[in-house]
Amino acid sequence: WVDVTMRNNMQFRAQYNRDRLFALGLVNHTLTEDSGIEYVFGFGYIIKNFRLGVQMPRGRGKQRFNSDLNIRADFSLRDNRTRISNILLNDSQITGGQKLLTIKASADYNVNQNLNLKLFYDQMMTKYKISTAFPLSTIRAGISATFTFGGEGGF
């Protein structure tokens, strides 16, 4: 995998994953192979000292809080396959698997020492390799607020 952050706060990511699993069935003389290949590409940008349009009251006057805004986007393409081979008959067939396209985008911002806001969008589109399953698409989007008690975050 490659993860690069440039001087102008641009970030680039590339990743290649491969997995394989074999299961031997001694009762029915089968060999099951689950394999997958995944390509991930991502980019990001960090906006330094970003001002959220909210003023925080501090003591006598009002103070604006500056923090970094982290923007990320990842694209992933995964190909899974399940193949069952009958050892005695020398027969092999694909019994399952899917192609998955995933799009993830997020922006997170530390409002103060204890509060983090995150805006996110996740979409996953699946196309199955067997004819009895329909294509599936799921979308998740929203705002996540994380409040940390104590401010230090340690034990």
Structure, explained:
The protein is an all-beta fold. 0% of the residues lie in helices and 78% in strands. It has strands at 2-5, 10-25, 30-58, 61-86, 91-110, 115-128, 136-147. It has a seven-stranded antiparallel beta sheet, with no helix packed on it.
Q: How would you briefly describe this protein structure?
A:
The chain has 155 residues and is mostly beta strands.
Secondary structure: helix percent = under 10%
Give the strand tally: 7
User: How far from one another are the termini?
Assistant: 33 Å
Q: Order of strands across the widest beta sheet?
A: 1-2-3-4-5-6-7
Strand composition percent: over 45%
What is the count of DSSP helices, taking H or I runs of 4+ residues? 0
- Secondary structure category: mainly beta
Shape: elongated
Mean pLDDT: 87
Give a short account of the largest sheet: 7 strands, antiparallel
Written as H for each helix and E for each strand, in order along the chain, the element string is EEEEEEE
Rg estimate, integer Å: 23 Å
Low-confidence stretches: none
Sequence-ordered SSE layout with sheet pairings:
Layout lengths: L1 E4 L4 E16 L4 E29 L2 E26 L4 E20 L4 E14 L7 E12 L8
Antiparallel strand pairs: 1-2, 2-3, 3-4, 4-5, 5-6, 6-7
Which features would summarize this protein structure in a list?
mainly beta; 7 strands; 155 residues; single chain
